[in-house]
Design a protein that fits this description.
heterotrimer; A alpha/beta; B alpha/beta; C alpha/beta; A: alpha/beta; Rossmann fold; five-stranded parallel sheet; 18 helices; C: alpha/beta; three-stranded antiparallel sheet; 11 helices; about 15% strand
Chain lengths: ~675, ~150, ~325
C-alpha cells in the first residue's frame, strides 16, 4: 500500500493561538506546493473531532499514506493524531508533527517572521514524513510470578503484598533466616514498639503463605530475559540438615562440640553459637543450619568418634551428604530488596572502635539493649576478646557493672567526605534518640550525651520524640568529635561545642557510634546480573528520582528498601508496597507493550565491533554469530523487548548499520537539509 | 574570504539560520514550556526533535553546517537527568571532540554550541537561544564549507 | 647507537616454523618491492615462499590492515570460511592497530600469531624518493648507527637518519610491539616523546587562518579514498561515506564535499587512530591527514586520559563516559 508518498498536510489555527501570529493560509498554500503533497488544509482546531475527521476522510478518499499535522507540540497531541491515523486504517507511525505553537506562534511576535519559520518547520516535517516507515506495536506475555531478592522487612512486605494479590512469589534470601536487620533491633522509633513483636508475625506469614516459595540460605545465580519473561537460576546452599525432618528442637545445637565457641552474627559477634545453629529463636524457617567453615566434621573431616549433632538429632535430620541444589523458574517481574550494610566504624580510626572495648556501634548497642541479646537486655560494660574465666565451684559471679555515662556520636560514616559518604543516612538521628531514651530507661541515673551536627527529625512523630528525649535529660552537644582516647578507666571524647565555641573533653564510660547505612559490599553481584546502575552514592539507581522511585531503567525490575537509599522502617515498607504494586501492574494486565521506535540492525553492514552493545544503557543489544554466505561473523542484534528507543547506539555506530526506527539517518538528514538551507 | 565575512558582519541585518537538535524529554519540553509561558525569543533557531541527545550523531552537526546552517545547537537533559540514563554523557564526549576539531579546522566555536536545558527551564531556553544567536551573529554567515547549491 | 635489528635468517626460520603449523593459514610479512627502495607486503601460504621475507627500514606498511580489510566473496553452499590463524609481522606502531582491532572485536587474540618487530624507525618513502629521484632498484636500505645506507643500481650512499626518517618515528613512544607471540629482536628502548609540536602552531591561530590552511589542503583532495582504504581501523563493509541512502555527502569533488569527507573520516577515527600514519603516507595529494588525526589524538589523551591501541581489554572511547567528563562549552 505504500508506494510513492501521498502526503496530507493539516495546519491548525488553534483558535487564535496559532493563527494570530502565523498566516495559516500562507503556510497551507506553501505546503500544497511541495512535492508529494496530495492535500493541504487548515482548520480551527485540528485536535477536535471534526478536525480529526478531516484527516481520516482524506486518508480514505484521497489515499493518503503520510500525514503531517502542524499544530501544538507533539508532546501534547502526537498520540491523539496517531489514533486518528490508526482509526482510518493507516499505520500510526506515518504521522509527523510540526510544532508551530509552543515553538513558533507563542514565542515570536512578528507575523512574517513567525510565518516563515512555520513554513520551514512544516517543510521539515514533510521531508521527514516521506521517509517514515510503518512500525508494529508489539506485546509480550507476562509470567504471573515475581522474584524478590532479599527477605528483610522490604522484601517480606513486597512478597506478602504480591502473594496476597494472588501471584506466585519466589522470595530468595542469602542468610539462613528471613528478617534482615529489623530482626536485630530492640524497639523502633518514635513509637517504641518492639521490633520483634511487629516483625515476627510477618516473618511467619512469608514462611506459611501458599503463594510464596521461600528460599533461604540461597542465592540468585543467573537471570536472563526481559520484562514478563525472566529466567532465574537460584542456588540453595546445603544446610546439611534435612529441612523436612528438622523440628527445630535445638538438641543438635546443645550437643555441638563447638557450642558457645563461635561468635554469633545476629548479636553482632557479641553472643556465641555453635557450628549448627539457629540465628535467633524466632528465625523463619525454624530449621537449623550447619556452618560449613566452622563445623569440625565438614572442615576437618573429623568430629570426635562421630558428629554429636547427628547423634543428638532424634528425627535424623542431620545429613552431611546433602548437596547444593540449583532451582530454575520463570518470573514476569523482579523486585530487588537486598538491603544495606552498616558502616564499618574502623574506617574512622580516631574513634577507637576495635581498640577500646566500650566504643560500640549502634547496632551492637541495639543487641545490648535487646532482651533477646547476649546480655539479656542489660546494658553492661564490655570486656571484649577476653575469655570468660571458668566459674569455680561456689564462687559468686560478679555481675559486670553498668556504665554510669553513655555518649552517642552521630553521623559516623554519613555526611562525611573523608570516607566517601556524602549522603545522610536518615535513620541515625532518630535511632540515637531512641537508644538514648532506652539507656535512660534501663540504667537509672545514667548520664547520656549526644554529639551531633544537626538533628534531622523530619518524619511523623519524630520531632515530638526528639523533644521528649531531651526533656528526659539527654544532653545534646553540637559538635563533631575529633578524637576518642582513654584516660584512666574513662573514655574521653574530644570535641568542640560549636554553639558556644568551647573546646571540651567529655569523659564517659561508653561511646555509641551512630553508624550510617552503606551500600552492600556484595552489591556488584546483583548489578552484574541485572545490569542495574548505581547513583554516585553507590546505592542502586532508580529510573527517576521523583516520578519513578521504585522502578529501574529496566522494565520489570523494581527496587524496594535500603538498596536504593537509606530509609527508616515506615519508608522501607511504603516503598516495598510501591514496588509490589508496580511489579503487579504488568502481571495483572498479563501483557506489556514494548516500545515501537526501537533500534534495528542492518546485519550486512554491521562489522560486529560491539560499540552499540557497550553504549546501550538497557543491555538490549547483543552480538550473535551469523552465517553470511559461508562467512561466520558476529553481528549486533537488538532485543526489542528491552530497547527503549533512545538511539544512542545509532549515533555511536560507525557504519550506520544500527538505526533507530522513526529517527533513522535517512529520516533526519532530509530535515537537516530543509532547515539548514538559509534562504 | 576574510573580506566577505567582514562585509557580512558589518551588515547588521544578518539573521543567522541555526539548526537545533533537542531531546524529547528535557530540552524539547523546556522549549515547549517557554512557549506555554509566552517567553519571546529570536526566531533564528529551528528545531529537530530526537528522543535523546545521545541520538545526535556529530556528523549531523557537520551536515547542517554544510547545508548552510550558520550555527548548530544540541541540547539535552542535565547530566544525571537523562531519560535514558546515560545518553547525554555519550553525547557530551562526542560533541566535545567534534567541536574542538571543527575549531581546529577554522570553524568558529560559536557555530556549534550545546546546552543542558531541563523541562522546567523555559527561561533558560530563551537565554540559550539569545546567546547562541548572538554568538553566530558575531562570526557572520557560514562560509567555510557550505554546500554550493546546484540547480540542474 | 641504533643498529639494524632484525636478523633475516632468524626471521625466516621463525616464519618457516609458523607457516608449517597445521593451524596457520597465512603469514603476512614484507618482501622486496619492484621499484626504488620500496618494500611490499608478502602473503605467505607455503613454506617455499618464506625465502622472500625480509625486514628493512623501508618496511613502512602497516600490515594490520590486511587482517581486517579483505573481500568476503560468497562461499560454496555448506562450507564456511577458513578460521585458521593468521600470522602477521608488526612494528611497535603497527602492533597498536592489532590491539585496537581487538578492542573492536575484529578478531580474538587467539586468531592471530603476532611476530613483533622492535623498530628504531622506518624511512619516509616520499623523502627518499626526493633524495634519490633516479633510483630504479630494487634497492636495499640498512640502518647503520645514525645513518641509513641506501644501495641500488650498483651505488651505495649513506644519509643521516634524521633526513629521511618518517615523521611519526621521531615521536614514537612504542618502538617495541605492545603485543606479540614472538619478538624477532631484542626490545628497543623508547627513544622519543610526543609533544604535539606539529599541530600546536595551527591550534594557536585564528579561525580565518586555520580555515585558509585547510581550505588549501582540502581543495587538493581528489577523493581517491586511499587514506580510508589503507587505514587498519576503516574496515566497515559499507562505509557510510559511500552510501547513497542516506547520503552524507555527494560524490562531487569540491571544497564543500571534500571538507565533509575529511571531517567525517577524522571523526570516525577519534579515539581509535593509533598513529601509524599510513593515511598520510598513501595520500597522492600530500594532504597532512595525520594532523587531523593527531588533533583528535591529543584531545582524547588530554580530556579523557585515553590512548587507543594500548590495551586490548580497554573499552572503546566513545562507548564509555565518565560522569565528570569535561563540558566547559556546554551552556
Amino acid at each position: 500500500m505504500n508506494g510513492r508518498p501521498r502526503i496530507g498536510v493539516y495546519i491548525c489555527h488553534c483558535g487564535v493561538n496559532i493563527a494570530h501570529t502565523v498566516d495559516v493560509q500562507e503556510v497551507t498554500d506553501f505546503a500544497a506546493g511541495l512535492p508529494d503533497v496530495a492535500v493541504a488544509r487548515n482548520y480551527s482546531y485540528m485536535c477536535s473531532d471534526p478536525g480529526q475527521a478531516l484527516i481520516t476522510e482524506d486518508i480514505k478518499e484521497l489515499g493518503l499514506n503520510r500525514v503531517v499535522v502542524a499544530s501544538c507540540s507533539p508532546r501534547m497531541h502526537e498520540l491523539t493524531f496517531r489514533k486518528a491515523l490508526a482509526g482510518a486504517g493507516l499505520n500510526p507511525y506515518y504521522l509527523e508533527m510540526a510544532n508551530i505553537r509552543e515553538q513558533c506562534s507563542w514565542v515570536h511576535e512578528d507575523r512574517s517572521i513567525a510565518t516563515s519559520k512555520a513554513k520551514k518547520l512544516v517543510a521539515s516535517a514533510i521531508s521527514k514524513s516521506r521517509m517514515l516507515e510503518a512500525l508494529e506495536v508489539k506485546e509480550v506475555d507476562v509470567e504471573p510470578a515475581a522474584l524478590i531478592i532479599g527477605a528483610g522487612i522490604s522484601g517480606i512486605q513486597t512478597a506478602l503484598d504480591i502473594a496476597d494479590a494472588g501471584f506466585k512469589v519466589y522470595l530468595v534470601e542469602k542468610s539462613p533466616t528471613v528478617g534482615g536487620h529489623m530482626a536485630q533491633l530492640d524497639k523502633t522509633f518514635p513509637t517504641l514498639d518492639c521490633s520483634a513483636c511487629i516483625l515476627t508475625p510477618k516473618m511467619v506469614d512469608v514462611g506459611n503463605h501458599p503463594n510464596i516459595e521461600l528460599y533461604t540460605y540461597s542465592q540468585v545465580e543467573e537471570i536472563s530475559g526481559y520484562v514478563g519473561n525472566f529466567d532465574v537460576k537460584v542456588r540453595r546452599k546445603s544446610r546439611y540438615v534435612d529441612m523436612a525432618k528438622c523440628t527445630g528442637c535445638g538438641d543438635c545445637a546443645e550437643a555441638c562440640r563447638m557450642a558457645g565457641r563461635i561468635s554469633n552474627e545476629f548479636d553482632e559477634g557479641m553472643g556465641m553459637r555453635g557450628a549448627i545453629y539457629l540465628p535467633f529463636p524466632q528465625a523463619v524457617p525454624a530449621k537449623y543450619t550447619i556452618d560449613k567453615e566452622k563445623c569440625l566434621f565438614l572442615s576437618k573431616g573429623k568430629c570426635g568418634e562421630s558428629p554429636k549433632c547427628a547423634e543428638a538429632c532424634q528425627p535424623g535430620a542431620v545429613n552431611f551428604d546433602i548437596e547444593d541444589e540449583i532451582i530454575e523458574f520463570k518470573v514476569g517481574t523482579i523486585v530487588v530488596a537486598s538491603g544495606f550494610d552498616v558502616f564499618d566504624a574502623t574506617l574512622k580510626p580516631e574513634y577507637g572502635y576495635g581498640v577500646y572495648d566500650n566504643v560500640v556501634t549502634a547496632l551492637e548497642f541495639e543487641r545490648l539493649v535487646s532482651a533477646s541479646g547476649p546480655t539479656g537486655g542489660k546494658i553492661t560494660m564490655l570486656e571484649r576478646g577476653k575469655k570468660k574465666k571458668k566459674k569455680k565451684e561456689g564462687e559468686e559471679e560478679v555481675p559486670p557493672r553498668m556504665p554510669e555515662s553513655i555518649t552517642f556520636i552521630q553521623c559516623v560514616g554519613s555526611r562525611d567526605k573523608s570516607v566517601g559518604n556524602e549522603y545522610c543516612s536518615r535513620v541515625c538521628c532518630m535511632y540515637t534518640a531512641k537508644q538514648a531514651h532506652l539507656a535512660k530507661d534501663k540504667i537509672p541515673g545514667v548520664d547520656v550525651s549526644v554529639f551531633y551536627m544537626d538533628v534531622r527529625a523530619f518524619g511523623k512523630g519524630f520531632e515530638e520524640f526528639y523533644d521528649r528525649v531531651r526533656r528526659e535529660g539527654v544532653n545534646y552537644i553540637r559538635g563533631n568529635p575529633s578524637e576518642i582516647f582513654k584516660r584512666g578507666d574513662k573514655l574521653v571524647v574530644k570535641a568542640e561545642d560549636t554553639l558556644t565555641a568551647t573546646p571540651l573533653e567529655h569523659e564517659t564510660d561508653m561511646v555509641v557510634l551512630a553508624v550510617g547505612l552503606t551500600p552492600r559490599s556484595d552489591r556488584r553481584e546483583i548489578i552484574d546480573m541485572l545490569k542495574l546502575s548505581q547513583s554516585p552514592d553507590l546505592f542502586y539507581l532508580e529510573a527517576h528520582p521523583k516520578l519513578r522511585p521504585v522502578d529501574t531503567a529496566t522494565d520489570g525490575i523494581y527496587l524496594a528498601g535500603c538498596c536504593q537509599a537509606p530509609k527508616d522502617i515506615p519508608d522501607a515498607v511504603a516503598q516495598a508496597k510501591g514496588a509490589a504494586s508496580a511489579a503487579m501492574i504488568p502481571m495483572a494486565s498479563g501483557k506489556v507493550k514494548v516500545e515501537a521506535q526501537t533500534s534495528i540492525v542492518n546485519e550486512a553492514a554491521c562489522r560486529g565491533c560491539g560499540f552499540c552493545v557497550e553504549i546501550c544503557p538497557f543491555s538490549a543489544i547483543e552480538l550473535v554469530e551469523v552465517n553470511q554466505m559461508g562467512w561466520m561473523r558476529e553481528v549486533a542484534r537488538v532485543n526489542e523487548a528491552l530497547c527503549k528507543g533512545c538511539g544512542a547506539c545509532a549515533a555511536g555506530c560507525l557504519s550506520g548499520a544500527i538505526q533507530q526506527r522513526s529517527f533513522k539517518d535517512t529520516q533526519i538528514l532530509p530535515q537537516i537539509i530543509v532547515l539548514g538551507v538559509n534562504e | 574570504m576574510t573580506e566577505d565575512k567582514a562585509k557580512a558582519t558589518v551588515t547588521t541585518d544578518f539573521e543567522p539560520n541555526i539548526v537545533a537538535f533537542l531531546c524529547n524529554w528535557c530540552s524539547y519540553a523546556g522549549a515547549d514550556l517557554a512557549g506555554t509561558s509566552r517567553i519571546q525569543y529570536p526566531a533564528n533557531v529551528k528545531v529537530i526533535r530526537v528522543m535523546c541527545s545521545g541520538r545526535v550523531n556529530p556528523l549531523f552537526v557537520m551536515n547542517a553546517l554544510q547545508q548552510g546552517a550558520d550555527g548548530v545547537l544540541v541540547s539535552g537533559c542535565h547530566p544525571g537527568d537523562c531519560h535514558y540514563m546515560h545518553g547525554n554523557y555519550y553525547a557530551r564526549r562526542r560533541f566535545t571532540l567534534m567541536r574542538d576539531f571543527l575549531e581546529y579546522l577554522g570553524v568558529e566555536p560559536e557555530r556549534f554550541r550545546a546546552s543542558w536545558v531541563s523541562a522546567s527551564e523555559g527561561s533558560k531556553w530563551k537565554e540559550v537561544i539569545e546567546e547562541v544567536v548572538e554568538g553566530v551573529k558575531s562570526v557572520g554567515p557560514m562560509d567555510q564549507f557550505k554546500r554550493r547549491q546546484l540547480n540542474w | 647507537m641504533v643498529e639494524q635489528l632484525i636478523d633475516t635468517d632468524k626471521l625466516k626460520k621463525i616464519a618457516e616454523e609458523v607457516i608449517s603449523r597445521e593451524d596457520v593459514r597465512l603469514l603476512i610479512g614484507y618482501r622486496k618491492g619492484t621499484f626504488g627502495f620500496r618494500m611490499r607486503p608478502a602473503f605467505v601460504e607455503e613454506v617455499s615462499e618464506v625465502g622472500e621475507l625480509e625486514f628493512t627500514p623501508a618496511c613502512v606498511n602497516n600490515l594490520a590492515t590486511y587482517l581486517t580489510n579483505y573481500e568476503r566473496p560468497p562461499l560454496p553452499r555448506g562450507t564456511t570460511n577458513d578460521t585458521r590463524k593468521v600470522a602477521v609481522m608488526v612494528k611497535g606502531c603497527d602492533s597498536r592497530a592489532l590491539l585496537q582491532q581487538m578492542v573492536e572485536l575484529a578478531y580474538k587474540r587467539d586468531d592471530v600469531i603476532i611476530l613483533g618487530i622492535p623498530c628504531n624507525g622506518v624511512i619516509d618513502p616520499a623523502k627518499v624518493d626526493k633524495r634519490f629521484p633516479e633510483a630504479k632498484g630494487p634497492g636495499d636500505v640498512k640502518r647503520e648507527g645514525d645513518n641509513f645506507t641506501f644501495s641500488a643500481d650498483g651505488k651505495t650512499e649513506t644519509v643521516p637518519a634524521a633526513e629521511v626518517i618518517a615523521d611519526k618515528c621521531t615521536r614514537c613512544r612504542y618502538p617495541t610491539p605492545l603485543v606479540y607471540d614472538e619478538l624477532l629482536a631484542p626490545e628497543v628502548e623508547r627513544f622519543a616523546d610526543d609533544t604535539y609540536e606539529d599541530i600546536a602552531g595551527l591550534e594557536k591561530r585564528g579561525s580565518d587562518e586555520k580555515w585558509a590552511y585547510w581550505e588549501e589542503k582540502f581543495s587538493r583532495c581528489v577523493r581517491c579514498y586511499g587514506c580510508r582504504n589503507v587505514c587498519p581501523m576503516c574496515y566497515c563493509d559499507e562505509c557510510v561515506l559511500d552510501r547513497l541512502s542516506p547520503q552524507w555527502m555527494r560524490r562531487s569533488v569540491d571544497i564543500s564535499e571534500n571538507t565533509a569527507y575529511h571531517i567525517s573520516r577524522a571523526y570516525h577515527l577519534a579515539g581509535r587512530c593509533i598513529q601509524c600514519g599510513e593515511c598520510q603516507r598513501v595520500c597522492p595529494m600530500d594532504i597532512p591527514i595525520m594532523e587531523m588525526n593527531r588533533k583528535f589524538y591529543k584531545d582524547v589523551a588530554e580530556f579523557y586520559e585515553y590512548e587507543p591501541g594500548t590495551d586490548a581489554e580497554e573499552k572503546p572511547l566513545l562507548s564509555i563516559f565518565s560522569v565528570d567528563d569535561k563540558e566547559d562549552f556546554i551552556l
